[in-house]
Structures are given as structure tokens and as C-alpha cells.
Design goal:
The chain has 11 helices and 13 strands. It has 338 residues and is α+β, with helices and mostly antiparallel strands. The protein folds into 2 domains: 212 residues, Jelly Rolls (Sandwich); 115 residues, Arc Repressor Mutant, subunit A (Orthogonal Bundle), CATH 1.10.10.60. The longest helix is centred in the middle third of the chain and has 27 residues. The protein is globular. About 2% of the residues have low confidence. Keywords: DNA-binding, Transcription, Transcription regulation.
Length: 338
């Protein structure tokens, strides 16, 4: 077992320590750090950024060739780790080689250790993994509401000095991480987008904890990882095929899920009902056709699975602020003036 020691809370020092212990090539671009590794220890990439003095974001997209552990050892008793597993499995414990908490794909773990101030994350060899870890110094966050929430929810345990929570499945966070990885801008714009998305990921982690703690939303935890994967697959299918005539019977047959679980899954993943998701997918597909083709409005309406031009005009204006003809005219004017 190889142990990688992290004894700092600053992004520069963290990557210096990772580089020294794992090797590879370290690239620093503005506020971002990218460590590319291809050696006897591991193959893959570790990247990260500092969002503010109190928050760091690190993403592991890596396969270790030997069993390895990452030890966070901090001087501050108010450190929290928000770990999210996009691919593979991650294990966590507060003591080396002791009982481990397991995160599987699409799960969040929140961990703090007030006495020993240690947290181990374990990576199995030959296990391709994509994990994001937000480390937060809860004593130094600037936002007073976030400060109060963190201290009241994660540092109030009277009988234990450790806090460990494993969430139910959440695909919204995976989508935000995809957005983070897809940022193409540079400079200040890129830094601002990174900060914004990392805060969104943090907010979704906190929201998931609240949701899991709430009796009202406890039914959502009845959805398994496989259920959520089927919801994600059928969501992509609808997005890619908006013209089909969807029915509850069709969707339940395609996913193997009963109607109530379909609704719960779409609410968790998209914060929409199934019908609203289909309607939105059709409107977005229509907007793309208006921008990229010479089809007239009637042709576009039918090509996205709708039959009423007036209804289409109504829902299009609700989303984009213009009816389809006005929107097309606006695009043409912008194109002509460019």
C-alpha cells in the first residue's frame, strides 16, 4: 500500500506534495494545477483549483497500478471533505486500515475528523476512478449562512469526533462536473466559471444531505444506482429523439421502472416532471433547428414531435422570451450585422 501524504490546505502546496510523491508532469495555468502521471504508480490526471482561501477543488481521473491511500492531515479541526464519485469506487476511513466507508458511482461522502484531523481515501489498484474532492475550512468561509449551516450540521455530534455521511445517488453533481470539464474560456472568465461551478457542486452536496435527512424526500432513496442510470439513459434518448410520441407505457417499458419511480428519478436528476422534461427537450431541439437550418416554423414544429403551432409558440416564448418568428428574425439581423 502506497500512502500519499497531504499536509497542507493551499492548492500550490498540495500539488507540490502530490508531484513529489507521485511523479509525473505538473502544469500550472493561472489558478489551475494539472498533474499528468504515467509511471509505475499510476496513469491519469489530477487537476485542481483554489476557489477561495477556504475552499480547494481537486479532481482525480486516474488508475493506480498499486493499492494506494491519500492521507489528508490538517491542523484545523474544522476541515470538511466533500467527495463525489463519478466513476468507479472510493473508500474512506479516519484510521489507517480500519473500517471503511464506501462510495460508489454517483454518490457523495461528507467527512470530518475533529480530534485526529485525519482522513484517508483509498484507491484500489487497476480500478479506473473519477473522484472530485472539495476540501473546505469551515472556520474561514466568507458566507455567514454557509458558515452557520456547516457548523450546525457537521460539527455538532456530541458522542463522536468524526462525521461521515454517504448520500443516496445524485446525477446532478455528475452533470456539473461535466460542465466544469467542458469550460473552454480562458483567463478571468475561466476562473469565474470554475468558481461558480465549484460552488454549485458544493451547494448540490449540501442539498443532497438535507434531502437525505428529510423524511419528506425519503422515498427518493428507494431509487438504486441502476435505476438512476436508466433514468439518465432514457433522458439522453429523449434529448436525441424529441420527435417520438412518448407515453408512460413506452417509458416504463424502456426503463423497466414504474411510473412513480420515473417521476422521482426525473425530479432528482432534472428537477422536472417527465412531461416537462420532454417538452423542454422539444423546445431546445426546435431552437437548435431555427439557428442551424432553413426549415420554416411549421416544419420545425412537426420535426420535434409537436402538432400545434400556437402551443409551440407559447412554450417557446416562455423559455426564450420571443415567439419563434421573432427569434428567427433576431438571429438573422444579428447575422447580417456581424
Amino acid at each position: 500500500m502506497k500512502t500519499i501524504n497531504i499536509e497542507s490546505n493551499t492548492i500550490a502546496s498540495i500539488f507540490d506534495q502530490l508531484h513529489a510523491q507521485l511523479g509525473g508532469a505538473l502544469v500550472i495555468k493561472s489558478n489551475e494545477y494539472i498533474l499528468k502521471i504515467n509511471n509505475d504508480i499510476a496513469i491519469g490526471t489530477i487537476c485542481g483549483a483554489s476557489v477561495e482561501n477556504a475552499i480547494t477543488y481537486i479532481e482525480f481521473n486516474i488508475t493506480f497500478k498499486i493499492n494506494s491511500s491519500l492521507l489528508y492531515l490538517t491542523e484545523n479541526v474544522h476541515f470538511l471533505h466533500f467527495a463525489y464519485c463519478s466513476k468507479g469506487e472510493l473508500f474512506q476511513s479516519f484510521f489507517e486500515n480500519k473500517k471503511k466507508n464506501k462510495l460508489t458511482q454517483f454518490q457523495t461522502g461528507i467527512f470530518s475528523n475533529k480530534i485526529d484531523k485525519k482522513s484517508y481515501f483509498y484507491f484500489k489498484k487497476e480500478n479506473e476512478i473519477k473522484v472530485s474532492i472539495i476540501t473546505l475550512d469551515a472556520s474561514n468561509v466568507n458566507d455567514s449562512d454557509l458558515y452557520d449551516h456547516l457548523h450546525s450540521n457537521f460539527f455538532k455530534c456530541p458522542n463522536t469526533h468524526q462525521f461521515a455521511y454517504i448520500s443516496s445517488y445524485n446525477l446532478k453533481i455528475a452533470k456539473k462536473i461535466e460542465e466544469l470539464n467542458a469550460i473552454e474560456q480562458h483567463g478571468l472568465t475561466r476562473n469565474l466559471l470554475i468558481n461558480s461551478i465549484v460552488f454549485s457542486i458544493l451547494a448540490l452536496n449540501v442539498e443532497q444531505h438535507l434531502s437525505d435527512e428529510s423524511i419528506v424526500t425519503s422515498n427518493s432513496s428507494s431509487l438504486t444506482k441502476k435505476n438512476m442510470e436508466r433514468i439518465k439513459e432514457v433522458s439522453e434518448f429523449i434529448k436525441n429523439n424529441p420527435e417520438l410520441d412518448y407515453s408512460v407505457k413506452f417509458l416504463t417499458k424502456k426503463t423497466g421502472l414504474p411510473p412513480h419511480k420515473l417521476q422521482i428519478g426525473f425530479k432528482i436528476l432534472h428537477n422536472r416532471t417527465v412531461a416537462d422534461y420532454i417538452r423542454n427537450a422539444r423546445v431546445e431541439a426546435a431552437e437548435n433547428l431555427i439557428r442551424t437550418t432553413e426549415l420554416n416554423i411549421s416544419e420545425i414544429v412537426y420535426s420535434v414531435g409537436l402538432t400545434s403551432k400556437s402551443y409551440f409558440s407559447k412554450i417557446f416564448k416562455e423559455k426564450y422570451g420571443w415567439n419563434p418568428k421573432q427569434y428567427k428574425k433576431l438571429l438573422n439581423e444579428r447575422s447580417s450585422s456581424a
